[in-house]
Specification:
Shape: globular
Largest sheet: 7 strands, mixed
CATH topology: Purple Acid Phosphatase, chain A, domain 2
Distance between the termini: 20 Å
Helix content: 10-25%
Number of strands: 13
């Protein structure tokens, strides 16, 4: 079995320090085999915010697989936004925008869905979609394959984006049919887990989509801070939502969902 901690939308520059400290301790106690972070390390892609995010990552267990989010692209520095959009991310977080982690039980692929020409939206590029498809051909089956991206593929805030990136939900159907088992995303600050056939209304082989709420930010959207813990075995994935309790000053297990592999893909046993 492999344990994967899924964090997202930390937004250093606008965090609750207590939540940050407790999150660090909680993740250490879980002792995951992998920490996956699906973007938005900073609030406004400033150097000081990236340094705080880097220090936080350094305090977490390894290995780690991380991808950027739209808040990691400068908003007000127009020159940097269009000519070096991920310069701060590359300098402080990682130069690797196409990370891959693989062992005997899981294969995890990270992808960059950020775009300079959007204000909040994003999506997977067609050439990046092809790269992932080629990687899937090389995966040693029957490992469980996981894709980590910041933006959900049905990201609803198209009105906030100029020239919203495509493809969207159609990429989910294609990647699920070619072997992706789990999609880990963030961006919406909403906790969710369910089959892709239900979430994206797509056909073919069903995979699992897991969204993380904001791990540490005060920018909550009607939900408390949260993160996900995935326990992965061959043909079996358990998703546990860890939810912040202000009263207890702690993260505690919330909803737990179990998914099993069937001939048609993954289905929930909830």
């Amino acid at each position: 079995m492999r344990t994967v901690v899924h964090l997202s939308d930390m937004h250093f520059g606008r965090v609750d320090p207590l939540v940050v400290d407790v999150l660090r301790e909680t993740v250490a106690t879980i002792a995951p085999d992998l920490v996956a972070v699906s973007g938005d390390f900073t609030q406004r892609a400033r150097s000081g915010q990236f340094r705080k995010a880097r220090a936080f990552l350094d305090s977490l267990p390894r290995p780690q697989l991380v991808v950027p989010g739209n808040h990691d692209v400068p908003l007000h520095n127009v020159f940097a936004r269009f000519f070096n959009p991920l310069g701060g991310y590359r300098k402080h977080i990682t130069m690797d925008l196409q990370p891959v982690y693989e062992d005997d039980e899981v294969a995890v692929i990270g992808t960059d869905t950020t775009r300079s020409f959007t204000i909040g939206g994003g999506g997977i590029r067609r050439r990046e979609l092809q790269r992932i498809r080629e990687l899937l051909k090389q995966v040693r089956r029957p490992v469980t394959t996981i894709l980590v991206a910041h933006h959900p593929f049905d990201e609803p805030h198209a009105g906030a984006a100029i020239g919203r990136a495509r493809p969207g939900a159609e990429a989910v159907e294609q990647l699920a049919s070619e072997g992706i088992d789990v999609f880990l995303t963030g961006h919406l600050h909403v906790t969710f887990a369910g089959p892709t056939a239900v979430r994206y209304k797509v056909g073919g082989r069903s995979a699992i989509v897991v969204e993380a709420g904001t791990a540490t930010s005060t920018r909550v959207r009607g939900e408390p801070n949260a993160f996900n813990v995935l326990r992965v075995e061959a043909g079996d994935v358990v998703v546990e939502h860890q939810v912040w309790s202000a009263a207890d000053r702690a993260f505690a297990p919330g909803e737990v969902q179990r998914f099993v592999r069937t001939p048609e893909g993954w289905t929930s046993l909830r």
